[in-house]
Each structure stands twice: as structure tokens, then as C-alpha cells.
Write a structure and sequence with these properties.
Helix content is about 45%, strand content about 15%. The N and C termini lie far apart (about 60 Å). Helix 1 packs antiparallel against helix 11, helix 1 runs parallel beside helix 12 and helix 9 crosses helix 13. It has two domains: about 130 residues, no CATH class; about 220 residues, Spore Coat Polysaccharide Biosynthesis Protein SpsA, Chain A (Alpha-Beta Complex), CATH 3.90.550.10. It is globular. The chain contains 13 helices and twelve strands. Strands 3-2-1-4-8-6-9 form a seven-stranded mixed sheet, sandwiched between helices. Strands 5-10-7 form a three-stranded mixed sheet. A two-stranded antiparallel ribbon has the order 11-12.
Length: about 375
């Protein structure tokens, strides 16, 4: 009975966190996007013809912003993404587009190496780095630029949902983890005082980038977004959150690939925030409620109630996110929630077994942000 009570308390804590995240999400979405006017260069590192790549990149061409340049960067002259870029440029001939093809390597992070190669082609003083799989609403760029106009802000980032490339089981499970785990959890963390940077959108002034040592300061770090945020904050500047919510493609179609991807996230986060990652196991209430019911059958009702509450909160979040370019959850089958929580706990547990992660076919080592050497980059 004591064990079952402990497990039930963990389930209730997870439900409380889910409810708080939903409250934060609704409060956040009541905000109004702003409209900045500064000219901006958007850096889009691309590698391979990923699922929904053309659809994602086209949302950038359709941005409602008065002046912006798009800089694409690839590292292989035979990259199939080049054909996608060509089609989009032909479809939108009025857009200011630059293409950089360079295999030059700078450190261990391939994305950052691409950015280093691309930077000389960027013409404007305001820079926005956006992943290739980002699907952005038309007002995303204007809102991001507007947030950066505040002098005390050095970096602007944006939340995102998960957009499955297919409507199969694996893509849906991946989208659930992003839309109903990462997104509300990030808002809750921000309410508690954290200012995280999310790699899907990173906007900063060129002068700020130079002050932290340029993209070179990120070249040997797997979690380049986290490192960028740390370096900007050490300049005495804050990190703002755009009001627009973008979507990122969940391209995995088999469970092993999805779990490998999620394990990379989990191991990276564990190395960056070990205590927070350890406590995050409480955010899976169905897992704890199921264990409580197995330990003492009288807690079976708690499991059923937790299941229903989890599904209702997801439905409410999906409706609240209707304006985002992602089916964020109102359509999700209710029976998937126990499976999603179980898989998340498996990933969480496996994150403690090693620091090795798989990224784009390469094995890398997740590492914490060094305390002594970072933040002292040349201005």
C-alpha cells in the first residue's frame, strides 16, 4: 500500500504538471504577434531531401515581411535538396535568395559548419537561423524581428509543435512527444525562470554574434542552440520568445529511428541539465498510475482517470493551437497515450546508459556546457 501510494503521488504530480502546462499554453497563445520591419537574412542550412522539405521551405518564401534575404547552405554539390531549392526559386522569382555550396568543415557540428560557410553571403545586420524542417506561419519572421528590436534582448527563439510527415503510428507518436511534452513543458520552465534557446528558430544581431565569437564558438558542441543561449546571456542580454508557434517535421516512419532520435535529445538534455532531466520522469502520469494499479488494484480508477485527463488536455491543446501549421493533438487516438508514456520512460531510462548519440549517421558524444571556457569569447 505504501509503494502504491508513492506511485500514485508521482502520477498526480505528472497530472499537475500537465495541467499547469495547459494553463501556460492558453495564456501564451492569448498574446498578439508583433510586426518588425528590420531587414533580415534568414540562414537555412539544408542537408538531404528530407520528408516535407519542399513544403517546409516554401513557408519561408511566403513570409509577410517587407525585406528579407534567404541564404541556403549545403555541403555537397550533389545534395538532392538543391533540386528542391531550384524549384522554389523558380516558383518565387522575386525573392532575394543566395545559395552557398561548401564542404569546408569547422569542428564536429555539421550544422554549425554549414552556418560558418553561409555567413559571408548574409547581407543584413539581423540574422535568423532556422532549421530546414520548420513550417512557419506567414507572420513568423515579422514577429521574430519585432521581438529582437528591444535593446535588452539579444536572442529570439520560438516554440514548435510536431508535424508528422505521414499519418502512421510512428509519426503520430513523435508528434505527441513534441506537441504535448516539449511545448507545454518549455512554457512551464520559462514561467519558473528559465530562458532556453530552441534551435528551430534563433534570431540575433550580427553584432551580438560577433561578440560571442561567431558561429565558431558553437562548432564543437552538439547542443549548439543551448550553447548559443548561454553565450548570449553571458553578454548581459535576454532571450525572448516569439508569439508565433512553428511546426517541425517528424519524418521517422519506423519506431527504432524515432526512439534513436528521441534518445539523442534525452542524452543531450541529461548532460546539459542533469537534475532537471532526472525530475522529468514525473511528467509521465500514465506510467506511474499503471504501476500504482499493478501494486494495488484499488488504484485502477486512478489509471483510468489519468488516461482521460491526459487525453482531454491534449485535445484542448490541439484546439488552442489551431492557428499553428500542425495537427497538434485534437485528433490523436486516445489509446496512444499509455504507449506514448511508456516509450518516453524507456527513452528516459536509456539516456542514463551512455553519452553517445547518433546524428545524421555519425556517432557523437553529448557533453555539458563548459563553465570555465565559455563566455570569454573575444568581442
Amino acid at each position: 500500500m505504501i509503494l502504491a501510494g508513492f506511485l500514485a503521488a508521482a502520477a498526480l504530480a505528472g497530472l499537475g504538471q500537465a495541467l499547469a502546462g495547459q494553463v501556460m499554453l492558453r495564456r501564451f497563445l492569448r498574446g498578439t504577434p508583433q510586426h518588425g520591419s528590420a531587414a533580415v537574412s534568414v540562414l537555412k542550412p539544408v542537408g538531404g531531401d528530407e520528408p516535407l522539405l519542399e513544403a517546409a521551405l516554401e513557408t519561408l518564401f511566403r513570409q509577410e515581411h517587407p525585406e528579407f534575404q534567404i541564404v541556403f547552405g549545403v555541403q555537397d554539390p550533389a545534395d538532392p535538396a538543391l533540386a528542391v531549392i531550384e524549384r522554389l526559386c523558380a516558383r518565387h522569382p522575386a525573392r532575394d535568395v543566395a545559395l552557398v555550396i561548401s564542404a569546408a568543415r569547422h569542428g564536429t557540428n555539421g550544422k554549425v559548419a554549414n552556418l560558418i560557410n553561409m555567413l559571408p553571403a548574409a547581407r543584413h545586420a539581423t540574422l535568423v537561423v532556422a532549421d530546414a524542417d520548420v513550417h512557419a506561419p506567414p507572420d513568423w519572421l515579422a514577429d521574430v524581428v519585432a521581438r529582437l528590436e528591444a535593446p535588452q534582448i539579444g536572442l529570439v527563439t520560438a516554440l514548435y509543435t510536431g508535424l508528422p510527415a505521414t499519418h502512421g503510428l510512428v509519426g503520430t507518436l513523435g508528434a505527441m512527444a513534441i506537441s504535448h511534452g516539449f511545448l507545454p513543458g518549455s512554457l512551464l520552465a520559462r514561467a519558473l525562470g528559465r530562458q532556453d534557446c530552441f534551435g528551430a528558430t534563433m534570431a540575433l544581431r550580427r553584432a551580438t554574434l560577433a561578440a560571442i565569437g561567431g558561429f565558431t564558438a558553437l562548432a564543437d558542441h552538439l547542443a549548439d542552440d543551448n550553447v548559443l543561449g548561454v553565450l548570449v546571456k553571458r553578454q548581459g542580454l535576454g532571450i525572448a520568445l516569439a508569439r508565433t508557434v512553428v511546426a517541425t517535421t517528424v519524418g521517422e516512419t519506423d519506431l527504432v529511428a524515432l526512439l534513436r532520435h528521441e534518445l539523442r535529445w534525452a542524452r543531450t538534455i541529461r548532460r546539459l541539465e542533469p537534475w532537471g532531466h532526472a525530475a522529468s520522469v514525473l511528467q509521465f502520469p500514465l506510467f506511474w498510475a499503471a504501476l500504482a494499479a499493478l501494486a494495488d488494484g484499488r488504484f485502477a480508477a486512478l489509471f483510468v482517470a489519468a488516461w482521460a485527463i491526459r487525453a482531454l488536455l491534449a485535445r484542448a491543446a490541439g484546439r488552442a493551437l489551431d492557428a499553428a501549421p500542425s495537427p497538434a493533438g485534437s485528433w490523436l487516438p486516445i489509446w496512444l497515450w499509455p504507449l506514448r508514456d511508456l516509450l518516453s520512460v524507456v527513452v528516459w531510462g536509456a539516456s542514463f546508459l551512455s553519452d553517445t548519440v547518433s546524428w545524421r549517421g555519425a556517432l557523437l558524444r553529448a557533453a555539458p556546457v563548459p563553465n570555465e571556457t565559455m563566455g570569454h569569447q573575444p568581442r
